[in-house]
Each structure stands twice: as structure tokens, then as C-alpha cells.
């Protein structure tokens, strides 16, 4: 039986894991990419047992140079068709820019702004030949604003959002979907690293709800999706305030 594969980075936990379940539920075979092999094996077994799909795993840290090329070469060796690419892997850096570690920020930029974009560069040509498929980039509500004390994280997410929107316009009419999923705070271990607390201005959503929203929007071909009414309202309101005010607001809640 012919298999359509979806490749998901950061698929061993959080939003990536929940997105993997959504694609598996709808019959996609999966290429699961993450740093920890044991977690990848557990997720692969779970999804293979629960759904009539195939799973392949690639243990790879996307913050390392040439990670995208390594992943692409492995997929080429397997000779399997990647119809959908989900760029989800990521990590959080919180603190005053003058005090945070450049090495970690460089890794974040390598992951978000180089390797994820390189994966699109590598897999997109075959998608265009088939005239079907898509790319789902996991961004953030932080993509829409400057993020004091999250300077590099929000800047990288903004980069990904603008890349997604521009590419979506370039590919209009080709049959290739491009969606930017922009969640706010998530109840995951990733969220724990930021020490952010639940509040009206920082509503925390569950990863399954975010994944469902993102998957549905992707399948409908929406270019940008912001899960949660409060998050939508906040992003909409940003356009009516001076940028300096937005930065002050973000410093309190981002």
C-alpha cells in the first residue's frame, strides 16, 4: 500500500507529539524527529500500535549545524515521499539579553532560522512536483510582538511567521499549503522552563487543543491560525497600540 509520510520535528512531546497523533489518526505515516531516541521509540510504537500506519524515527538535534541536511539524506536513503513537513522543534530562552548565554541563543537561531528553513528548502521541490502537500510551521503569539526578556526567542518566531506568510503567497495556486500555527502559553514541560503563570493576559492552553486547532487549519489551507479566543483578541488589539507600548506590555507578560 502506498504511504504518504509526514515529517515532524520535536515530535516526542508537547505540541509535536499531539500533532503526530492527529496526522496518524487521519492515516499519515510518520517520520518522527527528536533528540531522545528512547522517547521517539515509545511514540513510534504507540502510534504504530494504535493506527494502521508506518513510523520511521530520526534521532537528531536541530540546534546543530547541518542537521537539516542529515535528516534529508536519511529520508533520501529510505526513499519515502514526504508530503507534509511540520517544523515544530524548539526551546525557550528567558532572561535579560545582557545576561543570557550566547551559545544557547546561537543554537536557537540555528534551529529556528536556519535548519527549519533549510528543511523547507530541501523538501519543497518534490512537493511542487507532486502538486500536493504542505508545510506547518509552529510559531507563537510572540511572533507578533517584540519580546523583552525573550528577545531572541520572539525574534526567531517572528522570522518564522513572516517567512511562512511570504512563502504562502509565493506558492498560491500550486497545491502546496503553508500554515503558521501561533499558540500562546502551553501546559507542557516546555512552558515550565519559562516560569510563566496562568493569567488573563497569559492564558495557558492544553497541547491537544492547540494541535487540533493547528491540524484543522492546516488541512483547510489557512495561512495563520491563533488558537484560543483570548490569544486572538490580544493579537488583534496589538495593531491599535504604539510599538513602544506593546514592548512595555510584553515585558510584563511575555
Task: Note the main attributes of this structure.
alpha/beta; Rossmann fold; two-stranded parallel sheet; 50% helix
Protein described:
This protein is of the alpha/beta class and 254 residues long. It has a single domain, classed as NAD(P)-binding Rossmann-like Domain (Rossmann fold). The chain is 50% helix and 16% strand. The protein contains 9 helices and 9 strands. The protein has helices at 14-25, 37-50, 67-78, 102-130, 151-170, 189-192, 207-220, 229-238, 243-253, and strands at 5-9, 29-34, 55-59, 82-87, 133-138, 176-181, 185-186, 204-205, 224-225. A 7-stranded parallel beta sheet has the order 3-2-1-4-5-6-9, with helices on both faces. A two-stranded parallel ribbon has the order 7-8. Helix 3 packs parallel to helix 4. The longest helix is centred in the middle third of the chain and has 29 residues, at 102-130. It starts with a strand and ends with a helix. The model is unreliable at 190-195 (pLDDT under 50).
